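User: I'm new to structure prediction. If I give you an amino acid sequence, what do you actually give back? Let's try with this one:
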Amino acid sequence: MLRKYSSSRTLKDNIQLGSLTAFSAGMVNVTSLIIFFAFTSNVTGHYAILAEEIAKGNWNQVLMVFFWLFLFFYGNFIANYLVINSQRSSYIAHALPLVLEIVCLSSVGVYGLYYYQETLFETEILIGVMLLAMGLQNGLTASISNSAVKTTHMTGLTTDLAILVSMFTKKKYREVKELRDKAKLLSTIAVSYILGGVIAGLIYFAMGFKVFFMVSLFLVFVIFYDYTKLRFQLLMRKRRSKVPGGKRIKLKEMWLDRVSF
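Assistant: Good question. You get back a string of structure tokens that encode the predicted 3D arrangement of the chain. For your 261 residues, that looks like this:
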């Protein structure tokens, strides 16, 4: 799910990646809406706010909104930079953005529990940290899936899904496997996003800022699920290489271990 890159990914890989990360994005966005009255999984609205504040001449707010946009941009930049500059382990390079996201969200949770005084400046900084986290996630999923998976932006997803549904009114399009696969992926992401938002809302009303720890734990599960799966595959390869006459298989599997792990 995490270690495969671009064209080597299957529909199953993208559905797993999309559903799990969309679930966490929904959790983050709904939580930020409840607590801070701001969306943090995308920046479409922030561009509108930026234009509004420029028109009003509120330059302090202009700088803050621009700072938010930069943090989301920087998160995407860092995620893709780590992916394209991985030298040895694609899994580690692809997992690092999620680790950084966990650090960001856990920091918001800790600050919210013990230090948050509900001032405007604090709120603006915490929103920025969450935008950075969502930028990291969106940059990762888009980079390793060749832009097939984007889990923090529902506007484009809804547009693509509506176009596909419209195309499916004609039989010739319904018979195209690539279009059916894309519709399945987009539908899964949308449902996961909503489900994550609903669950986050319920957790927040019961536990407050601890919801950020729940999101972080979920991301830890995503990382270690893929790690466990990878280790199991490597173990099975080593076992198969021990069969009689399997010398060539062993050499091939050793090479695969080097390039994939």
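You can read the tokens as a compact description of the fold. Here is one thing that stands out. The mean pLDDT is 85.
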